[in-house]
């Protein structure tokens, strides 16, 4: 009893030991390394990747798709989307004055994209979003539009489009938007770098009562703007 | 060494002075050799672990990261020495260096070639067992001096583990000592020279070999027996509170110990520096071609003549030493690789499993090995007129035969 138990245990231990060793040896000799040498070469992100929310442009008309409906502003759980708009007196359409996303607080939850009724927002595939100055993490409307150009398409992907199809990078070459656009760590993105201690000029409707002045009132002649954030 | 110094023109100095000079040179060589081996083993460890996990490991420094240990050591060298409050300062400071000393001392008696031993002690094996005790002292000193519960727990585990496995380790070597009849490592290596690959003590002492491998892993505090520094339980065990170069000395100790024990294993069980050099290969090929004298032919005769012509160069000259060193390093690193392979395969055992394995399994098995070695040796030595049959042949093949 005792000895058979002893030997059986020993043989069982040896067997499992040999199995483990053979597995690691096979991994070592048979399988190549899957390492991606990151700064030198960049891996493709999966199709469901959630990067920075960007604004698309309709490449047929050349106009941006955003209608300032503020659904994304409503959906945003952390209130990082700032939207100011006025109504065009002629066409009676809303025109965005300022659309900005504060990426320092954005948690990339995809809710704004889901809320967008005009398929205007898209999540970018870029992941090198770090900046030297935190002020530069506020992406203004023109930044978002410029970066969103490479995700814009002339035609909407129909409901029958394949799930794993190539993402709409097709206009990458046409628009000339490059990876460098989003990877400039200084964060200029088409505008001049923000000065140290920069404070955004407040529109009249955001000013507190004491700061409110008569000329500001006169400038804000258009109907009410909406504020979020 | 003294004779060598005299032969190169230092004979005007007294023998005492030459002995001191020789000792200094030997010590320097051992230190350099240990540090070189540390570098290779450390990078190799990271590389092997990376290969087994489908990574590439260190890649940026040197060619594919193979000199990673230099920036690592430099970084640790210029780091701050952090000392916790209420430590036992003398113990805390001196502990890593005692461990380092005990690791380097192993290299004193390792035969690296014909006559290539720093100190060919008559008590070789006992010397190894004795200096291993220093490592227990170093670990316990560092754990006790750190004023940290994790360190102390790690140190107590380490001390218990190393003391109990020391017994098993020595018991597993005793089989080899019984085969040779000498504790001297150079004698042990020489005894394995006669039969080539079959003469290695790994064959007749296969039980002792296995026990030695397991017990030396436990003695080295290496995974799967790294309970003294179990990261998941004890932060980092006995060297939790160390930083900077003192910590680096612990890392040095670990790898120098690993290579040292592997060198001892190679000497005891795999024939040390004995290996086929060019001469042995050629003469063996000639012998094979003529059927070991059964049907002599001209090609085999030419090869044998050629081997006889190069015999002097390859068995006496410096090439002999080079081949010996190469074989020694190859065999050593075979064991180093084996230890790394096991480390990156097996999970850590529990402390009770460790003690069970040591006292209830390995110690009885090594005692059984001593028993069976004694019996077979007795038969082989005393019953000289044993007729050739299966049993006798087995004993002969296993190398128990006394010449």
Structure description:
- The complex is a heterodimer of chains A (229) and B (403).
- Chain A is of the alpha+beta class.
- Helices cover 27% and strands 12% of the residues of chain A.
- Chain A is built from seven helices and seven strands; from the N terminus they run αβββαββαββαααα.
- Chain A has helices at 2-30, 71-75, 111-115, 141-148, 172-175, 179-183, 214-219; strands spanning 53-55, 57-58, 63-64, 81-87, 94-102, 121-123, 138-139.
- A three-stranded antiparallel sheet of chain A has the order 4-5-7. A two-stranded antiparallel ribbon of chain A has the order 1-6. Chain A has a two-stranded antiparallel sheet with strand order 2-3.
- Chain A is elongated, with a radius of gyration of 27 Å.
- Chain B is an all-alpha fold and 403 residues long.
- Chain B has helices at 2-10, 15-52, 69-77, 89-105, 124-145, 149-180, 185-191, 206-219, 231-234, 244-269, 278-289, 298-315, 318-343, 351-382, 390-397.
- In chain B, 40% of the residues are buried.
- The model of chain B has no long low-confidence stretch (mean pLDDT 82).
- The interface between A and B is medium-sized, with 16 and 15 residues.
């Amino acid at each position: 009893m005792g000895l058979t138990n002893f030997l059986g245990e020993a043989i069982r231990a040896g067997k499992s030991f040999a199995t483990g060793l053979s597995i690691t040896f096979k991994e070592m000799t048979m399988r190549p390394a899957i390492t991606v040498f990151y700064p030198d070469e960049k891996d493709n992100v999966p199709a469901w990747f959630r990067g920075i929310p960007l604004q698309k442009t309709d490449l047929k008309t050349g106009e941006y798709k955003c209608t300032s409906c503020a659904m994304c502003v409503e959906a945003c759980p952390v209130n990082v989307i700032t939207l100011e708009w006025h109504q065009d007196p002629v066409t009676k359409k809303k025109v965005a004055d300022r659309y900005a996303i504060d990426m320092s607080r954005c948690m990339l939850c995809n809710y704004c994209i889901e809320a967008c009724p005009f398929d205007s927002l898209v999540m970018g595939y870029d992941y090198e979003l770090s900046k030297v100055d935190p002020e530069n993490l506020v992406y203004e409307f023109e930044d978002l539009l410029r970066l969103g150009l490479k995700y814009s398409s002339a035609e909407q992907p129909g409901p029958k489009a394949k799930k794993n199809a190539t993402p709409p990078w097709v206009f990458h070459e046409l628009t000339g938007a490059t990876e460098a656009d989003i990877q400039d760590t200084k964060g200029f993105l088409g505008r001049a770098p923000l000065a140290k201690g920069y404070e955004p000029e407040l529109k009249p409707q955001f000013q507190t009562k004491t700061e409110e002045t008569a000329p500001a009132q006169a400038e804000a002649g258009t109907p009410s703007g909406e504020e979020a954030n | 060494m003294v004779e060598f110094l005299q032969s190169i023109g230092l004979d005007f100095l007294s023998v005492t002075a030459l002995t001191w000079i020789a000792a200094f040179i030997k010590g320097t060589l051992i230190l350099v050799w240990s540090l070189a081996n540390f570098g290779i083993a450390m990078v190799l460890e990271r590389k092997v672990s990376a290969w087994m996990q489908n990574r590439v490991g260190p890649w940026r420094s040197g060619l594919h990261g193979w000199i990673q240990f230099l920036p690592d050591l430099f970084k640790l060298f210029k780091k701050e020495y952090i000392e916790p409050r209420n430590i036992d300062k003398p113990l805390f400071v001196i502990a890593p260096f005692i461990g380092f000393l005990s690791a380097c001392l192993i290299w004193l008696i390792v035969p690296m070639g014909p006559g290539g031993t720093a100190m060919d002690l008559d008590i070789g094996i006992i010397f190894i067992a004795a200096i291993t005790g220093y490592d227990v002292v170093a670990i316990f000193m560092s754990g006790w001096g750190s004023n940290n519960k994790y360190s102390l727990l790690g140190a107590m585990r380490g001390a218990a583990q190393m003391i109990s496995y020391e017994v098993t380790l020595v018991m597993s070597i005793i089989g080899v000592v019984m085969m040779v009849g000498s504790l001297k490592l150079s004698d042990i290596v020489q005894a394995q020279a006669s039969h080539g690959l079959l003469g290695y003590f790994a064959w007749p002492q296969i039980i002792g070999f296995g026990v030695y491998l397991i017990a030396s892993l436990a003695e080295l505090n290496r995974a799967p027996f790294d309970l003294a520094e179990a990261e998941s339980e004890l932060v980092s065990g006995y060297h939790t509170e160390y930083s900077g170069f003192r910590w680096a000395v612990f890392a040095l100790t670990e790898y120098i110990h690993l290579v040292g024990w592997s060198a001892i294993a190679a000497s005891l069980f795999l024939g040390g520096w004995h290996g086929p050099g060019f001469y042995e290969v050629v003469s063996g090929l000639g012998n094979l071609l003529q059927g070991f004298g059964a049907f002599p032919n001209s090609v085999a005769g030419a090869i044998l003549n050629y081997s006889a012509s190069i015999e002097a160069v390859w068995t006496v000259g410096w090439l002999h030493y080079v081949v010996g060193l190469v074989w020694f390093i190859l065999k050593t690193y075979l064991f180093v690789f084996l230890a790394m392979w096991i480390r990156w395969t097996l999970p850590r055992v529990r402390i009770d499993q460790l003690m069970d394995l040591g006292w209830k399994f390995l110690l009885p098995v090594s005692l059984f090995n001593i028993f069976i070695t004694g019996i077979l040796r007795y038969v082989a030595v005393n019953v000289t007129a044993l007729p050739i049959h299966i049993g006798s042949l087995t004993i002969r093949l296993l190398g128990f035969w006394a010449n």
